[in-house]
Amino acid sequence: MNDPSLTPLVSVIIPTFNRAHMIGDALESVFRQTYKNIEIIVIDDGSIDGTQHLIENLNAPCLRYIKQENAGASAARNHGIAESKGTYISFLDSDDIYENKCIEAKVAIAMADENCVLVGGGCSYFNKHSKNCAADTPARSSTTYEDLCIFTAFPGATSNIFAKRAAVIAAGLFVISLSDSEDRDFLRRLVKQGNIKSCNFNTVSMRIHSEFRPNRHKQKQHADREWVSAQIPEKKLRKKSRAWNAMVMANLHWSENQKLTAMAWWIKSFLIHPGSVHPERPRAKPILRDYLLRNILSKQQSPV
For a tag on the chain, would you pick the N or C end, based on fewer CB atoms within 10 A? Predict the structure, then answer.
């Protein structure tokens, strides 16, 4: 399996920005891969923290380091795609790590189906205190075009994307103006090119750290999600996607104890699309579950 003459080249693309303190772990996880016919392309998006010195001192023959002016992670990924030479492309964010058999397993799955354009897997989570700091997001047995229109049905997000390079080029690159849901937009277009498969185990581990703040720019993130939804050609799926976007905002405000704002977004979600948005993602469940738990606990703790 590891004979380069019999195995396709895989281009691992790692965009990074000021993560000299993390990228070493990401690179080490690629070096540990059981699959060896790999080129690693690090696209440095204008770091000023010593990333270049760290990478250049590694002296790894399979590693290419390219520095660009700061333009964002999506622009860095697109730059990596342009520089890649592999039959397959595998993305990895510079704060995440691959499991040891990630690429070997994905190559095997992709090569078993000539129409396969995308392979994913499960995702675990770690931080500086624990190797398992949150519940895993298990591998999905199936993912459909409808799934990817409505929500990011892809555990591990961009760090778990393993795709046929020709299909990536045909689908179109990442939209560089997006700071949220760029992976959903990309995957929705990519799945039009062929089949999606998945490994049945965790293939990537995502780092949770102080820079990982998914809710810090809610309005900009919502605007990005709305733009992505607007690109969906099917009217029904577009409405379902927008209804789910509103539900995401409801859940975010609810988690921050902004109950009235959350309820307003919840109502908006139903007004956009009154029916079920997706069978796997009930809209009412997160809020109702939290509401009931809080009330049950408060009653149990109240003096008689």
Answer: C
Work out whether the CA dihedral 236, 240, 245, 246 comes out positive or negative: positive
The band of 277, judged by pLDDT with boundaries at 50, 70 and 90, is: confident
Q: Is the pLDDT of residue 126 over 60?
A: yes
The count of C-alpha atoms lying within 13 angstroms of the C-alpha of 257, restricted to the half-sphere facing its C-beta, is 1
Mean pLDDT over 64-68 rounds to: 97
Angle at 204 between CA 200 and CA 246, to 5 degrees: 90
* Sole residue written with tokens 């277009």: 189
Separation between Cα atoms, residue 283 and residue 179, nearest integer Å? 24
Domains detected in the chain: 10-207 (3.90.550.10), 218-301 (no CATH)
User: Which neighbouring-strand residues pair with 43?
Assistant: 15, 66
Give the range among 57-61, 111-115, 129-133 with minimum mean pLDDT: 129-133
Q: What are the tens digits of pLDDT across the range 169-202?
A: 999 999 999 988 999 999 999 999 999 999 999 9
| H-run or E-run covering 145 | helix 145-150
The answer to whether 221 and 253 are in contact (CB under 8 A) is no
User: Apex CA 124: angle with CA 118 and CA 126, to 5°?
Assistant: 135
Q: Is 101 helix (H, G, I), strand (E, B) or coil?
A: coil
Q: Which two tokens stand for residue 14?
A: 């790692």
Alpha helices, DSSP H only, in 175-234? 182-191, 218-230
**H or E segment and range at residue 12:** strand 10-16
Quick one: DSSP state of residue 292? H
